[in-house]
What does this fold into?
Amino acid sequence: MSGPVVATPAAPDGLYVHIPFCVSLCPYCDFVVFAGAAARGPRNRIDAFLAAVHVELDLRADALDAAFGSRRPPLETLYLGGGTPTLLPAGDLVRMLGAVRDEFGLAPDAEVTTEANPDSVGPDDLRRLADGVGVAFHVEDDCLDPDPDDARPLLPVVGADAARVRAESPP
It folds into this structure.
């Protein structure tokens, strides 16, 4: 009989970033979210949140570099969940995606997914996200709206082969 098997830790190949902002709190939601004035309006907490996320990304990337060095592969998946990540201005999401790419790397074929509500994302936002990600970006048209005819105009915006946007249907 041989000795105990010792597992070698592996560098993560995916990252989840929780964006805790919603227009309203759904009664079925068990996630940490900030709704109402904390998410929108002059007293929102988005800028403070983004500053904290950038600090956390730096700290986590430094810890991974210390643990894995050059053996750390770029991320294969990046998931922005929440909340409703697309409540953040597209420019802020693009800067966050850029920070993830700079700190962790994104594989050329990485899957980037963001939860969205059709009321909080439009064609211009999708264009900015697709341009800012720098990897494939796919729109799942069956999720954008219960009526597929209403979702189809968004498809040409980024193309069927351009970031993955999964949109939550309104409750």
